[in-house]
């Protein structure tokens, strides 16, 4: 059982943006979802965990490894799929994975060969193993990225927006892969897709403006909201006045008409009906505290 | 539609700053050469106007090569801009016509591309007008401008050249849609120019070279090669002849390229071809369970990671289009260069390994530098550009591993290039049936020069890439370091090789001396650079930007925190090692062996002249006899010289002091009996000795010299190439101190002289008949010695032979060394050579003369031919000019560090670079060995028996005579008179080109000064023609009579007037004009066969009618030409074959008008007719003298 402990991690970019603001988290084996809108600081956190970026203050420990000061040690047990994953165009899938396997310490040739074959098969690219990567579609490249993140014996796997560009079938396949691993290692899944977290993660955090707004299990967060979410279909021109009167956490179109969700301790009446909260409501209730319309 | 695209292209480009920057660059590039001598384009401006049409075209054509690199952008942009901005899909869906789009863009770019070069016009005009105001340079060297100067240049060069280059680049851009490929296309075009230049070096290929030059640069040079200054000042390039043909050919080629590209062009997006075979799904043994693996991180892991990195890098470079193109391109250039052979006077040299290496070095180095710069950027930024950097960076490898792998893969690319070059070289050698392939030389040369050089380059370029935050900025800095930095150093006159990365090593392989005297220095400098590069690598490894982009200071901070102690230790160790090597190099090149910067040299020379010039005319004693004792130590490259020099006062006044200065680099001890030093000047090692009692007229005194040349460590450059391990060659002027004022030290360049307040250097003393001071010395010795008696005792190591002039009267071995005692058989000039090497000797005897060739055992192929040539020369010269006074005639080989042959008394050192390595197997008609050997042997008469007084025309009496004599020996074995025409062609060409390039005044033959093109080129033609007109025996008799009058006599020495006096008695009055025209004036002919027709007569004979135009032209010394009435005898003749080898029925006809019709009855029908068929007369355009016959 591994534990990743992040304490008071802060980072301010030279342009003044606070990417990480006193972030503290404790993560244990299993799938951990990091949810946040674009620009929330998820990728900064991911990159810092992956030893690619320095922090201004704070500590990160993976068991006994001090990640900020022992980057070499953590790299030995790290699987990382960055948000933007590309490939060398002129070599084949097999060559690339073999190279990356070597970088991850798989020095035994036959082990490496088996591993690469296994992973290629897992991501359904075995048939394409001798094709130059420049001919791969975005989804195929992403699958290579997933395969490489699983190489070795990682204790910590970080996947940043992994399902972008994957079709639903590929996405399911990917999640099955992750779920297989989930119990033995720490998997941090950064995403802005609420469904991903709900389906996969036992623990999660919601992040915005560099701060952790929520940390706990998804179900617990949903439970917290039980009885506090109300919804109503409203006229398009009425939206503004509702926004003034209620704390709207989200508005979306349903059948051509705006459906608003509001957070309220008491029943607001006025035609609102109680809604069963879901993770999306949790997400919006945490990040949209100002009640802005979208 | 067309107008819209055309105008929008113009508007777009004119809004970019680039075009204006380029224009300004060209204005400046032309402005400075126009108003200053310090800045030159393609060489100095001769004795024609600084703003002449010739200057303009020359500069413009050369600069157009540079502009090409600039305008690639315009054409590439015009083709690719829409794709780059992803705008093409929108644009192509508009109702825009394909032709309007394609040609509108192109012509817009073309017009823009011609703008930068207009800056050249502006620069020249601005320079001319500003100079007329400020008078920086003499205003008389500027002339008026004419409109056609600009118009013709624009229409003949700028527009067609940009059109051609633009069409190719535009087509490439459309086809490949890659900026890289467009730029490579530009490079390729420049290389084509270089190939055409190399073709131009052989005369017979001239028209081909003229037509094959894409830019007409060589074509223009050919068209103007015989231009006189007046013509250069007034004639703009014209729409005619070879130039027009060239322009039409290449413009139509450009047009075709453009049309082809248009035909290929389509608005539909390029269907990307699917590469690689479709994989057939194979049934695999599925691995369903994750395999058991044991990741390991230890030393072995690092090694395997290194190999994997290296493999990935090399594979991706090898697969890149850039590599493939550069590689192919390099090979093509090399193969073309090799297949041209190694020409020398129309002959081929054997493809020796070192010659191939020179070719590889010369043709490919620039590309390898480009490879190093380009791929350093590719390797460093590859991960980031592929967006895989975060994965790689987050993996558990040490940064230095990946860095080392990058350097090593860059190196191995260079190795691959070189291996293939070597393979091509060997294949070429074998293909030519040459089997002495020296693989060791190929590889050693690679290890000594290219490998360390590119290790250094890779270190530098990679360090720059790592430190820089931008790939292109780093390219720019690398280019600055590798190309511009050294020019800046040169401008600043900083010469320490410790700062010159590229020009460091000084190797030149010689079959005799192997890698030569520079090897030690090269190895030290290599170590110095490689260590520095290693240091750069280590720093790059520590500052490598791993993870997200960080500023340099952040990376420093991080490195401070993270770089492990061991790594720091290695950096410290490397630094101290480098410092150690640097101080050794510094000690050797700056302290142990010193050198002067150019400005110091100039200052010293100027100060010398000011300080000691007043002693110039002071009486000094002559050297009248010398005894040498010389010990050569080849292994250490040391020489000890002891000499007893007898000095005699031949002036009419007593001499009370001796002015002596020692040679630089020699430790000199002087012992002068009964004298004391009264003055010493360390800067020139100049001493004045006061004699206890003055040396009276007629009195002699022996002084003793003990000189040593000690090679210490290594130098800042290659070092002394005279004294080497195998093939030492020096002469008395290299080793003995100089007695009296030495005018050779004086500054020669008039501008430099002006800078130091010195008057322009006087030319040779004027030719004069009345005996004066100038007659008292020869041009070679200036009265410091006449004919003297010399004896030499010379020793060398046991494995070598040492040779000095004279008969070998004794030889023995002692203390493991060889000793030789030589004594000259007859008094000779004080001009003595000393050689030592591991020689083979070939001997032959002819009438008591030992003919000997001393050669390196690898070079035996032409030795017999040399002996034949010596014998033939001795036979002809003794029969025609008089006895040979030495008992030996030796040819002695020396290493190729210098390329000449020279004549010392009875001894002719001859460079290995020509003659010994020439392929003479199937050259019957152009035998350079016969030619050169005969020339040098004839100097045993013309120079060594009689030498001209130190005045104008002096060299005619040695060089013109030698060249003539040499031609006559060849004539004596030539049965076909047409063969001599081939030899004469080189002399004609040398003369006409030489006079075109004259920076001072062209003087008539008998007054020529140090003007090789006159006394070699013109002199031999005039004398050869003369013997044809008045008879061989008469010319030879005049020369013999002249020789008999003066041979081995001291002053007064003769001048050309003394020879002409003898010559005149041999020339009939009807031909006296030949002396006047040939010797005393500058005379040219403009003969032309306008028409040649025949009629078959009833009796079977042929009536041939020739329409001949003949003009006689006199030129003044500046090239002002004027026609004079003709009244001359000129040959007409016929050829029976197309090759003009079978001359048939030649007769000499008197021409006394401009147009002459000549009828000749012939028995057979010739193919061609000619005026002056054997090319005896100097004719600016000879090719129009010959025409094929046609039926009337």
Protein described:
- The complex is a heterodimer of chains A (294) and B (1192).
- With 294 residues, chain A is of the alpha/beta class.
- Chain A has 10 helices and 14 strands.
- In chain A, the strands form 3 sheets. Chain A has a 6-stranded mixed beta sheet, with helices on both faces.
- In chain A, a hairpin with a 5-residue loop joins strand 1 (3-12) and strand 2 (18-28).
- Chain A is globular.
- Chain A starts with a strand and ends in a 7-residue tail after the last helix.
- With 1192 residues, chain B is of the alpha+beta class.
- Chain B is 47% helix and 17% strand.
- In chain B, strands 3, 4, 6, 9, 12, 14, 15 and 16 form an 8-stranded mixed beta sheet that branches. In chain B, strands 23, 24, 25, 28 and 31 form a 5-stranded mixed beta sheet that branches.
- In chain B, helix 25 packs across helix 27 (959-972) and helix 29 packs across helix 30.
- The model of chain B is unreliable at 271-279 (pLDDT under 50).
- The chains are: A alpha/beta (294), B alpha+beta (1192).
